[in-house]
């Protein structure tokens, strides 16, 4: 048991250290090539249902990263019903918490691949979209945790999921097939402050006794 624990210690250290960071800077401990390697490794080794490999990731830094967040803001604003206070709030939040970072990893699930699998296995067709979301989460988590192990902070954002115009405009900006469905955006950079939503206080944990069960017989 203790041997298993020590072999997985580095893995669990990375898991424990992964948090949501909202105070990002443009500092980058890794080169762009090293960042590319992290994203490629994560995409290669993240599991997918039936090894479908439908998950996609796009890494943007510099001007493209800034254009990405300008695009998200412009597509998001019309959903705020002309509320100037809300527009100012989101303009500031996007600028200071996401665009302020060094780069972003944008995640997608290729619907062409998912639809092909669903077509081949009609008896499972309703499950493929769910497994696709599960696969997306696994990939996002690997990249998020790896970046934080390298000294970055990051947060997971879902504008594309609930604002169709964000999805459309982001794909257009990055010249991607409309079949690439945006699942999340991970803005990252070296953090300038502690983890967690500003003003939210310490992260709390529900008792594990209520969340786990064990049967050793
Ligand atoms: C599936 C999922 C969706 C999330 N969506 C968002 C989001 O849209 N915006 C955001 O700021 N954080 C989002 N989060 C981050 C959670 O709020 C955060 O992980 C949680 O509060 C625990 O805090 P920690 O990440 O610091 O450990 C999401 C996390 C998960 C797993």
Automatic annotation (TrEMBL):
Record key words, sorted: Cytoplasm, Nucleus, Oxidoreductase
GO annotation (BP), single: cellular response to oxidative stress
Cellular compartments per GO CC: cytoplasm; nucleus
Chain ranges of the Nitroreductase domain: 15-189
Tagged with keyword Nucleotide-binding: no
Family per record: Belongs to the nitroreductase family.
Protein name: Nitroreductase
Organism: Kwoniella dejecticola CBS 10117
């Amino acid at each position: 048991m203790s041997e298993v624990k020590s072999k997985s210690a580095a893995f669990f250290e990375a898991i424990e250290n992964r948090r949501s960071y909202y105070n990002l800077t443009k500092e980058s401990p890794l080169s762009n090539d090293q960042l590319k390697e992290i994203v490629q490794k994560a995409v290669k080794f993240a599991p997918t249902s039936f090894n479908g490999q439908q998950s996609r990731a796009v890494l943007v830094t510099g001007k493209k990263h800034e254009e990405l967040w300008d695009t998200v803001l412009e597509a998001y604003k019309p959903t705020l019903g002309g509320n100037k206070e809300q527009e100012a709030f989101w303009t500031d939040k996007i600028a200071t918490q996401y665009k302020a970072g060094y780069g972003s990893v944008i995640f997608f699930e290729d619907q062409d691949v998912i639809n092909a699998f669903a077509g081949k296995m009609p008896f499972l067709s309703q499950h493929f979209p769910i497994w696709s979301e599960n696969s997306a989460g696994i990939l996002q988590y690997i990249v998020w945790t790896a970046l934080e192990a390298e000294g970055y902070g990051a947060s997971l954002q879902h504008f594309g999921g609930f604002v169709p115009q964000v999805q459309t405009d982001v794909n257009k900006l990055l010249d991607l097939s409309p079949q690439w469905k945006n699942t999340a955006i991970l803005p990252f950079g070296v953090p300038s402050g502690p983890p967690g939503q500003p003003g939210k206080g310490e992260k709390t944990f529900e008792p594990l006794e209520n969340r786990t069960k064990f049967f050793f017989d």
